[in-house]
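Incident log, support desk, overnight shift.

02:14 A customer reports that sequence design results differ from what the structure should imply. Their input is reproduced verbatim below. On-call engineer (initials T.W.) acknowledged and began investigating.
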């Protein structure tokens, strides 16, 4: 309030000073002073109306899919060579990043910078995940079809997870977390790679957890049957198939998905390391793998137990065979003895 009156008095002093050398018009001076005061005092906002939001926040939808057990990245690169984002690290052998823009990038100069929010991105991973950035729901199937052409072991039902990125240039920090979204000061291709890697691993981990859950349920059914009957009817071939499935799931999570391989981009820059660690914590990657490992140990324990039962069953069978052979040998010996006795008589 004091500032407004100071502005008014200063303006009036200027007018009075200038009037000493020029003809004095009191009514005109009062009008000018009133106009100056009015221009300096802002009008109150009408009810229901506030100041316009000057924060240019851009929301970018992110969708992660797990659609197959293997994807041929070389085939995708051959079909979409114009859309490939050049790799920024040596650890890009298990994925390919594609960029789709509504304008021709090659027609611009070498210094031309493309904002990530102005294009659509898709990051495809060899182990079967695809993460889509800035692509609306009605466009998803078009982009996923580019992946399915080079996918093997396509699932009947894809697994999906939704996320969002809010790009906020006025953000003081580099990033800020939120429920089902992350706020970034700026989004670039390295940020897309980091976010895509965690979301791709997370949705793949969901699939492998469901596979192990199926194994746990199957062994739980076997145990319930043994509780009722005291035996089980599984043959050795079926048991070996379960062993192979459990081992392959664990190997895929560790080797193919690379759950414990830290991103080289995160190693280079602390900003991306912060995003990487936040997302892994947000999606509870380590905890979920711990649960998966616990379930696999339960499966492994049951497999060892059933293998011992089958081995004992086989040993029992062999023992009965030996007993049978010894019995036959004794009968034959007794027969030969009786025959020799009759011959002597």
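02:41 Re-run completed on a clean worker. Output:
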């Amino acid at each position: 309030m004091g500032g407004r009156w100071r502005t008014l008095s200063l303006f009036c002093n200027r007018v009075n000073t200038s009037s000493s050398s020029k003809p004095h018009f009191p009514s005109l001076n009062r009008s000018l002073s009133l106009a100056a005061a009015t221009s300096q005092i802002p009008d109150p906002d009408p009810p229901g109306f506030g100041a316009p939001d000057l924060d240019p926040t851009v929301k970018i939808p992110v969708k992660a899919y797990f659609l197959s057990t293997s994807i041929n990245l070389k085939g995708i690169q051959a079909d979409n060579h114009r859309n490939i984002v050049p790799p920024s690290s040596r650890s890009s052998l298990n994925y390919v990043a594609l960029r789709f823009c509504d304008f021709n990038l090659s027609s611009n100069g070498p210094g031309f910078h493309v904002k990530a929010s102005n294009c659509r991105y898709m990051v495809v991973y060899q182990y079967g995940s695809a993460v889509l950035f800035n692509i609306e729901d009605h466009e998803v199937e078009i982009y996923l079809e580019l992946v399915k052409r080079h996918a093997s072991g396509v699932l009947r039902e894809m697994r999906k997870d939704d996320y969002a990125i809010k790009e906020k240039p006025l953000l003081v920090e580099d990033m800020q977390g939120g429920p089902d979204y992350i706020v970034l000061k700026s989004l670039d291709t390295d940020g897309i790679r980091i976010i895509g890697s965690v979301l791709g691993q997370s949705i793949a981990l969901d699939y492998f957890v469901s596979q192990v859950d199926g194994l746990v349920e199957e062994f739980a059914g076997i145990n319930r049957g043994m509780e009722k009957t005291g035996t089980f009817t599984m043959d050795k071939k079926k048991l070996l198939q379960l062993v192979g499935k459990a081992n392959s799931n664990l190997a895929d999570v560790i080797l193919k998905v690379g759950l414990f391989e830290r991103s080289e981009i995160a190693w280079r820059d602390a900003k991306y390391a912060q995003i990487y660690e936040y997302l892994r914590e947000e999606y509870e990657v380590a905890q979920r793998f711990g649960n998966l490992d616990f379930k696999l140990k339960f499966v492994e324990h049951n497999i060892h137990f059933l293998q011992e039962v089958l081995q004992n069953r086989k040993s029992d069978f062999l023992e009965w065979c030996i007993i049978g052979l010894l019995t036959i040998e004794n009968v034959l010996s007794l027969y030969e003895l009786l025959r020799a006795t009759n011959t002597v008589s």
